[in-house]
Specification:
eight-stranded mixed sheet; alpha/beta; single chain
C-alpha cells in the first residue's frame, strides 16, 4: 500500500534559467490561455485588454536597453490572472506601441520577476520549470532573509538582460479597487541596486514604475452572482431562496451569508479551541457593516493566535506579518532542513516526521483562513456603493473560504461573466535620487525604505478607477 508522506526534504532553490524558446512558446500560446483557460476555469474570461498611453514605459525600456537605467516594474496584484495580463503587455502591447511611434526596441520585450516559492507546491514541479525558464526568481515570503533568492535578485537587478517585475503587495487580495499594505522588499531591493551599482562604479539610474491592473465586467452578471450567493447559502445551511438579479436584494443576502459564516467560525473557535469571543459594542451612529468588520478582525486575531500558540511564537506585526511568520515556522516542520539524509532515516523516523508535519499542515490552515480575509473591510461594499465587481469579489472570497473548509484544496471558482482589463502606468520614481538619505545611517535607511514604499503605494492607489457599471 502506498504511504503518503507529509514531511519532505527542504525545498531546493530553483535558479532562473531564462530560455528564449520557452518565452516564445508562451507568447504564441497566450491568446489560447486568455480565451480558453480563463474562460473555462476562472471568472468567465478576458475579452478585451486596454492600456493607457505607454509612452513612459516605451522610453524606459529604450533607456534600459541603452544601458542608462536599471528598472523595476511594481505592479498591482489583485488576481491570479495578473501574470498573463503582464505577458500580454510585454509581448503585444509594448511592441505594437513602439512600432506605431517608430521607437526601436530589441526583442524580446520581457522581464525577470519574483514569484512565491509556494506556487510550485500548489502548481507542481512543472510550474517551477516554466517559471525558471521564464527568468523568474523564487522567494520564500516567510523567511526573514531568503539569502539565496535575494542575492540572485540583486544580481539580476544590475546585470540582468531584462528589467525586474515585482508585486509589492506580496500576494493577491482579491480586491480590484483596494491596495493591501505594501511590503518593504521592493523599495529595499531598489536601494540595494543603487548600492551595488555604486560599488561597481556604474552610473545607471535605478527607477521604479508603478503599474495598475484593473478588471471590469462587460455586463454586470447579477443573475450569476445571485446563483453564487445561493450556493453559499446552501452550504452554510441557510433557508433556500430563489435566484434574483436585484443588486439591493443580493447585497442583503451577501451580508447575511457573511454574518452566518462569521457566526459559525466564531462558534468553531470558541467550542473547539476554547478561545474567548468578545461581544462587539455597537455604536448607533456607525454603519451596519462596522460591527461585522470588528468581529471579523477579532476572529482573524483568534485564528492566528491558535496557530501561534501551537508553534510557540509570539505575535508580532500586523496580520500579514503574522501570516508570513507562521508560514515560515510551518514550512520548517514540513520541509525539514535538519534531516540531511532522508534515505538514511528509518521508517519509524519518517513516520514521526510525517506526524508532526501533518499537524503543522492543519495549523497552517488557520493562517490560510486569515490570509484570505486580510483585505476585507466594512466600507468596500455597502448599500451605497454596490457594484457587480465588488459584489463578485467579496462573494468569491467567501466561496474560497467555504470550499477550503469543506476540503477542496484548489476551489474551482464559478464563471460569472466576461471581463475586460485596463492597464495603467504611474510616474517613474528614482531610487537613486533618494540614495543620499538612505546611506546616511541605519535609522535614515529604514525611513528611506518606508518613504519609498509609501510613494509606490500612493501611486498604485491613484491608478485605481472606480467601477461605473455596477447597477446597469
Amino acid at each position: 500500500m502506498f504511504q503518503r508522506h507529509f514531511a519532505h526534504p527542504k525545498l531546493p532553490f530553483i535558479p532562473p534559467r531564462y530560455n528564449p524558446l520557452v518565452l516564445r512558446l508562451a507568447h504564441l500560446l497566450l491568446p489560447l490561455f486568455l480565451r480558453f483557460r480563463l474562460r473555462r476555469w476562472l471568472i468567465g474570461g478576458i475579452s478585451r485588454l486596454e492600456t493607457s498611453p505607454l509612452d513612459t514605459l516605451l522610453h524606459l525600456y529604450q533607456q534600459f536597453q541603452q544601458g542608462k537605467i536599471r528598472l523595476i516594474l511594481a505592479f498591482r496584484h489583485s488576481e491570479v490572472e495578473d501574470p498573463l495580463i503582464l505577458i500580454y503587455l510585454f509581448s503585444r502591447a509594448i511592441p505594437r506601441a513602439a512600432q506605431r511611434q517608430n521607437i526601436s526596441l530589441t526583442s524580446p520585450i520581457h522581464t525577470h520577476f519574483l514569484y512565491d516559492r509556494g506556487m510550485t507546491i500548489w502548481g507542481g514541479d512543472w510550474l517551477g520549470w516554466v517559471l525558471s525558464r521564464g527568468g523568474g526568481v523564487p522567494i520564500h515570503r516567510g523567511k526573514p532573509l531568503d539569502r539565496t533568492a535575494l542575492k540572485t535578485a540583486r544580481d539580476l537587478l544590475i546585470n540582468g538582460q531584462f528589467p525586474m517585475t515585482i508585486a509589492p503587495e506580496g500576494a493577491t487580495n482579491g480586491h480590484s479597487e483596494k491596495i493591501s499594505p505594501l511590503e518593504p522588499g521592493t523599495a529595499q531591493l531598489a536601494f540595494w541596486a543603487v548600492e551595488d551599482l555604486a560599488k561597481h562604479q556604474r552610473k545607471e539610474t535605478v527607477l521604479l514604475l508603478p503599474i495598475g491592473i484593473q478588471y471590469y465586467f462587460i455586463r454586470p452578471p447579477w443573475s450569476k452572482i445571485g446563483k453564487l450567493i445561493q450556493h453559499l447559502e446552501k452550504n452554510l445551511g441557510l433557508p433556500p431562496l430563489p435566484i434574483v438579479a436585484e443588486p439591493d436584494v443580493l447585497y442583503q443576502r451577501l451580508f447575511k451569508v457573511a454574518e452566518t459564516l462569521l457566526l459559525q467560525m466564531e462558534d468553531f473557535y470558541h467550542r473547539f479551541h476554547h478561545c474567548p469571543i468578545s461581544p462587539v459594542a455597537v455604536d448607533s451612529n456607525s454603519p451596519p457593516t462596522q460591527p461585522l468588520e470588528q468581529r471579523l478582525n477579532h476572529l482573524l486575531d483568534v485564528a492566528l493566535t491558535v496557530a501561534e500558540d501551537y508553534f510557540k511564537i509570539e505575535p508580532q506585526g500586523n496580520f500579514i506579518d503574522r501570516c508570513r511568520r507562521l508560514e515560515e515556522v510551518s514550512w520548517n516542520v514540513i520541509y525539514r532542513e535538519d534531516i540531511p539524509n532522508w534515505r538514511g532515516i528509518s521508517a519509524f523516523q519518517q513516520g514521526l516526521a510525517d506526524w508532526v508535519a501533518q499537524e503543522a499542515i492543519l495549523q497552517e490552515k488557520h493562517m490560510r483562513l486569515v490570509e484570505s480575509f486580510v483585505a476585507v473591510t466594512s466600507d468596500y461594499i455597502t448599500a451605497e456603493n454596490i457594484t457587480a465587481e465588488r459584489m463578485a469579489e467579496v462573494a468569491l472570497i467567501l466561496f474560497d473560504c467555504v470550499e477550503r473548509i469543506r476540503g477542496v484544496k484548489i476551489p474551482k471558482r464559478p464563471r460569472l461573466g466576461q471581463r475586460w482589463v485596463k492597464i495603467t502606468l504611474g510616474e517613474p520614481i528614482s531610487a537613486s535620487d533618494r540614495y543620499g538619505a538612505y546611506k546616511a545611517g541605519r535609522h535614515q535607511a529604514k525611513q528611506a525604505v518606508k518613504d519609498l514604499t509609501a510613494e509606490i503605494q500612493a501611486q498604485l492607489e491613484g491608478l485605481i478607477e472606480a467601477s461605473s457599471g455596477g447597477l446597469g
